[in-house]
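BUG: 3D viewer hangs when loading the predicted structure for this chain

Environment: internal workstation, default settings.
Expected: structure renders.
Actual: progress bar stalls at 90%.

Input used:
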Amino acid sequence: MKKITLRPTLVAAALLTTPLLAYSQGGAPGGGRPAAAATPRRVGGSLTGTVTDAATGKPISYANVAVLDGAGKVVNGGVCGDDGKFVLPGIPA
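Structure tokens produced before the viewer hung:
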């Protein structure tokens, strides 16, 4: 009676399928690198308002307006219109 062994066949099958299994993993989309954590951006804004007289409530024409940082340094400023209104764009965050 002839003895049949499967050992060479199993070794050959394992050697042939291992590279296929490794290649099929592929990794993450975009080259396999994990996505970097998003860093928060500092976004500025604008300041809008009307300067009025505290006693009468009437607008004050051509008043100077200034925005100061925590150290008291002027970071933006402007002059009101004849109606007391102002818009200061580009205020840092």
